[in-house]
Write a structure and sequence with these properties.
Blueprint: E1 2-5, H1 24-30, E2 36-39, E3 42-44, E4 60-64, E5 70-73, E6 75-77, E7 82-83, E8 89-94, E9 124-126, E10 129-130, E11 132-133, H2 137-141, E12 158-163, E13 169-175, E14 186-189, E15 205-208, E16 211-213, E17 239-241, E18 244-246, E19 251-254, H3 266-270, H4 275-288, E20 300-302, E21 305-307, E22 312-317, E23 324-326, E24 329-331, E25 345-350, E26 356-358, E27 361-363, E28 369-372, E29 378-381, E30 384-386, E31 406-409, E32 415-418, E33 421-422, E34 426-431, E35 433-438, E36 441-442, E37 445-447, E38 466-469, E39 476-480, E40 485-490, E41 493-495, H5 501-509, H6 533-537, E42 556-559, E43 562-564, E44 577-579, E45 586-591, E46 594-599, H7 615-618, E47 662-667, H8 692-698, H9 702-715, E48 731-736, E49 739-743, E50 747-751, H10 757-775, H11 796-809, E51 819-828, E52 834-837, E53 840-850, E54 853-858, E55 864-868, E56 873-877, E57 880-889, H12 894-911, H13 918-934, E58 939-943, E59 946-951, E60 954-956, H14 958-969
Parallel strand pairs: 1-2, 2-4, 3-5, 4-15, 5-16, 11-12, 15-17, 16-18, 17-20, 18-21, 19-22, 20-23, 21-24, 22-25, 23-26, 24-27, 25-28, 26-29, 27-30, 28-31, 29-32, 30-33, 31-34, 32-35, 33-36, 34-37, 35-40, 36-41, 40-42, 41-43, 43-44, 51-57
Antiparallel strand pairs: 6-14, 7-8, 8-13, 9-10, 9-14, 12-13, 38-39, 45-46, 46-47, 48-49, 48-57, 49-50, 51-53, 52-53, 53-54, 54-55, 55-56, 58-59, 59-60
Helix pairs in contact: 10-11, 12-13
Length: 977
């Protein structure tokens, strides 16, 4: 049966399509197994507490009728706000608004939480983004940039709360930095969860397509009830799909532990037992009370965008067994750095038995993936990890090292990490044993090898004894401390990335503590002192007379690994391939709806030299005596690479089987980054936020300028030095002496004066190169007709002669010689396209297309370069105006970007005198961009300084190709930039 919900409906509906319920909870109260609840777009300010679950094969489905159209929020709008001073506003909120606990009287607390960072459970939100809490009126009035935040510009937006004298109101004081809170959307979190059953065992629920945000969740350690903004609460068979999960105070999704009243944060409330012991007690109690595969776990989280949560995007202890987390983007977790403790990460799971984590992108988290205790049968495969250490310019104050892509802690395995890209400065923290790393691309170091498995005692041994289980079961087979080792490194590629000076300086300053546990050298060198299998087994030919032998490091196995850029193998690795002659480069590129990995690796790495591996070759983890195998016990064959290509019997090392310079990792469009309150992350829009210029005009303060500069340093973003304001229909661009005028009947913008000598030299080089290339144009090409609107009858030879004189003698500011040009399509947002001339990189500003003619305008250049892409003729126009019919952003599709790059490559061939062999460049561009255009049915023929495009055995003009790509990708004309 279907039930319908519409927030804008009158109360009293019956759930029918004609008379829908007004709240989701009304539908939840009547839904039975097999029913589906369709929720119309709107903001639902409620906590959904499903009283009944579905059954296997008959789930109860909660579905947003449009993707992310239905928003379930834990926040309420508050106001009116009164101005107390130039910078401080105040608002009184009755405490009756809080349905349960008051999150502004209770603080974040729990085992393993660092109480030195004080924080209320609640938050104040400006236009959907949480502000920063301070604890005095003076800090509200004069906020100070918090340099340990990854987004320091945000830290000047602050709030403080106190209780009224009669205890009936929570009083807020806030600094909105020039924004008017009575105009903007200001909310406070009032509910502890958004979609979370109050009872255990409410299983088989599907939650699809919602945005869920702004809950006042508490800290979720493994020894407490782990509440999340969303979660199944100790049940089985949930599916959470196509959702956006954001702005939870602590955890976004919880697959976590249920309440054990006698063992709830026992370590930090009674102090008598160490946290490790209370956690062992919690595991045993759960097992005694029915923790098994039949009642708990087997959840699926897929295609979700999880970001901007304080503790974890996904958290869970024991409740996430036999689950799958796939195809999701988890990012910007813990970046506010307003919370601290040992449970923070993009994903933080304890006891992830037979859990599969695949095809996710995990980036910009204070720690990427943290697998703690009992990562037995856990597989991490086909994921992209990057930027999971503090950005450059951040003040590092973490007591838990620098962060890394993957942290595996005190587990006995088997834990399988295969076919991943580990691109952060620190790849893995390995305070563990029983792991296998197979077919990965690894750019960072391994830290804490052989360390970090005790509880820090100074007199007595404080080893942590953790459980291991009967294979593919929750039944405990035994407890043991960590011996370290028992690691397999097979068919990986290690590429040392440049060591950041700030990280090195930080580690040197902490040489007595984490500095001696953390290295930045990529490779297996961290395991240089570990025995080989032969060495280890030689000590057990008879029963050892020395009992210490049983507590020595376990063996480490190496096979088929490649090392580049100074990455270091273990000296015990017999077949290591080491190349220190060539420089391997790599980067992540986000263009349009694609995330791509760019590298020149295959220019230097041999292919097809390794053996195809299976579970059998990896053996068994030492303690549980379990193979690296599938949850059903079947053999894993590593015959599929990162992007799904089949590997032959003699595969290539690393995650990619076939050579390319560009691998499209994800093409979903769902990897959306959030906006900041102030400052910009790379590639982000500013929707939902009032224009920053408005705030700056209302509140001009040096602190905010300093914070924005810090933001630019942290994010690597650079503000544009001129603005584009293009509108649909015809528009005119004029470029005169470095000034660009955008016109649609009147002047809109005029800026970008050229005053940089380096830019001027680069422009001079380009002009000289084009002039030289024009001089060499032979008579065969002289029948080219100029596109000059003022004199369309002129020949190419006359134009070449005219333009050659222009370079030497013409004042480029003269309007008398300006060419009035016309194009059908203007390609904009071209900053990711560049042209190299005499070892100087020039970014492309715009590309204009008319039939097979392209005009390329480089940033900072007053002139424009005209290219006939079919006939290979090029000349420079120093003074010009352009009338364009349509504009298209190259960011909207990979096909449009590919066309732009082909045109830029042709320009380079003409202007770069240092280019030794244009044929090689034409071949390289064809290999890189040809497959992209093939996706749109267009064949690329790039040779002999000519760019030709073919579709259905017919030549296409540039305009026809651009239109074909735009139609195929669903692109639209840019309305405003």
């Amino acid at each position: 049966m279907y039930y319908y919900v519409a927030q804008n409906n009158f109360a009293g509906g019956d759930g029918s399509r004609e008379h829908p319920f007004k709240t989701i909870q009304e539908a939840a109260n009547v839904a039975l197994p097999g029913d589906e609840i369709i929720v119309s777009p709107g903001i639902y300010r409620e906590r959904v507490d499903p009283p009944l679950g579905g059954e296997e094969g008959m789930p109860i489905v909660y579905r947003s009728s449009s993707h992310l159209g239905a928003v379930i929020t834990g926040a309420e709008k508050v106001g009116p706000w009164k101005r107390e001073s130039e910078s401080v506003w105040s608002c009184e909120v009755p405490n009756s608004v809080f349905p349960g606990r008051n999150p502004f009287t209770e603080f974040v607390r729990g085992d393993w939480f660092d109480v030195r960072k004080k924080a209320h459970l609640g938050d104040v939100f400006l236009n959907g983004r949480s502000m920063y809490e301070v604890f005095s009126y003076q800090e509200v009035e004069k906020p100070v940039t918090m340099k340990s935040s990854w987004n320091p510009g945000d830290t000047l937006f602050v709030w403080y709360c106190e209780q009224s004298r009669d205890g009936l109101y929570t009083v807020f004081k806030a600094n909105f930095r020039g924004y008017d809170p009575n105009i903007e959307n200001v909310e406070i979190s009032v509910r502890s969860t958004c979609f979370y059953p109050s009872k255990e065992g409410i299983g088989y629920i599907t939650l699809s397509g919602f945005k869920i945000c702004q809950a006042a969740t508490n800290w979720a350690p493994p020894t407490a009830h782990q509440e999340g903004m969303v979660g199944p609460h100790w049940s089985k068979g949930w599916i959470i799909e196509d959702c956006e999960i954001t702005e939870s105070k602590c955890s976004g999704i919880s697959l976590g532990k249920y309440l054990q009243p006698a063992n709830e944060n026992k370590w930090t409330t009674t102090y008598l037992k160490d946290g490790t012991q209370t956690q062992r007690d919690a595991v045993c109690q759960a097992l005694n009370e029915g923790w098994d595969k039949e009642t708990v776990g087997s959840h699926i989280i897929r295609r979700c965008n999880i970001h901007d949560c304080g503790q974890a995007g996904i958290v869970g202890h024991m409740g996430g067994i036999f689950s799958t987390i796939e195809d999701s983007h988890i990012h910007h977790i813990g970046c506010k750095n307003n919370l601290a403790g040992a449970e923070i990460g993009g994903i933080k799971l304890h006891a992830a038995i037979d859990t599969l984590i695949r095809r996710n992108r995990i980036d910009h988290c204070i720690r990427g993936l943290w697998l703690d205790w009992q990562a037995q049968g856990t597989r991490v495969t086909g994921n992209l990890f990057h930027d999971n250490v503090p950005p450059v310019g951040t003040q590092i104050d973490s007591g838990l090292s620098l962060g890394e892509d993957i942290f595996v802690e005190v587990s006995h395995g088997p834990t399988l990490i295969d076919n991943n890209l580990l691109l952060s400065d620190i790849a893995c923290r390995l305070s563990t044993q029983g792991i296998a790393l197979v077919h990965n691309f690894i750019a960072g170091s391994f830290t804490y090898v052989g360390k970090g498995t005790d509880n820090g005692g100074h007199i007595f041994a404080t080893d942590r004894y953790t459980p291991y289980h009967v294979p593919h079961s929750t039944m405990i087979a035994g407890f043991m401390t960590i011996l370290h080792g028992d690691v397999r490194f097979c068919n990986n590629v290690f590429v040392q990335k440049p060591v950041r000076d700030d990280l090195q300086v930080y580690l040197e300053s902490k040489s007595a503590t984490i500095g001696k546990l953390t290295a930045l050298s990529c490779g297996t060198i961290a395991y240089k002192d570990y025995p080989s299998m032969e060495e280890y087994l030689s000590g057990f030919k008879t029963r050892p007379s020395n009992r210490d032998t049983y507590y020595d490091h376990l063996p480490v196995y190496f096979e088929g690994n490649y090392y580049f850029n100074g990455a270091l193998p273990s000296p015990k690795e017999k077949d290591a391939y080491v190349d220190n002659k060539h420089k391997v480069t790599f980067r992540i590129s986000d263009e349009g709806n694609e995330c791509a990995f760019m590298t020149n690796l295959f220019a230097f790495m041999p292919r097809g030299e390794k053996r195809l591996l299976t579970s059998k070759e990896l053996g068994t983890a030492f303690e549980p005596e379990q193979r690296f195998e599938n949850p059903d016990g079947s053999v894993i064959v590593f015959d599929t690479d990162f992007i799904g290509n089949h590997r032959p019997l003699m595969p290539t090392a690393g995650p990619f089987e076939y050579p390319s310079e560009r691998y499209v990792l994800f093409r979903s469009g769902s990897f959306r980054n959030p906006v900041l309150i102030e400052g910009v992350r790379p590639g982000l829009s500013q929707k939902n936020i009032t224009s920053p210029s408005k705030a700056e005009a209302a509140y001009d303060n040096q602190d905010i300028e300093d914070a924005l500069k810090a933001d630019a340093a942290v994010t690597g973003s650079q503000g544009s030095d001129r603005g584009l304001q293009l509108q649909t229909g015809k528009f005119v661009i004029e470029e005169i002496e470095g000034n660009i005028d955008y016109k649609d009947g009147k002047d809109i913008k005029s800026s970008n004066n050229i005053n940089n000598s380096k830019d001027s030299n680069a422009i001079k080089n380009i002009k000289e190169s084009i002039s030289a290339s024009e001089a060499s144009i032979d008579e065969e090409s002289a029948d080219y007709t100029s596109v000059d609107d003022n004199d369309s009858s002129g020949t190419a030879s006359k134009d070449a002669e005219h333009e050659s004189n222009v370079f030497d003698s013409t004042d480029i500011s003269s309007r008398d010689r300006k060419k009035n040009l016309h194009c059908q399509i203007a390609l904009v947002d071209c900053e990711n396209i560049s042209v190299t001339c005499r070892e100087q990189i020039r970014h492309v500003s715009e590309i204009f297309i008319e039939d097979n003619i392209a005009w390329v305008h480089l940033e900072g250049d007053s002139g424009i370069t005209e290219i006939d892409c079919a006939y290979g003729i090029c000349h420079y126009i120093p003074s010009w105006s352009m009338e364009a019919e349509d504009t298209v952003s190259v960011q909207r599709s990979d096909g449009t970007m590919a066309l732009g790059r082909c045109i830029a490559a042709l320009l380079r061939i003409y202007i770069d005198k240092d280019l030794q062999d244009p044929d090689i460049m034409e071949e390289r561009v064809s290999m890189q961009e040809g497959p992209v255009l093939n996706h749109y049915g267009i064949q690329l023929r790039f040779a002999n300084r000519q760019l030709k495009l073919v579709r259905n055995k017919k030549f296409l003009s540039l305009v026809q190709a651009a239109e074909a790509v735009r139609r195929a990708s669903g692109d639209v004309i840019v309305e405003e930039i």
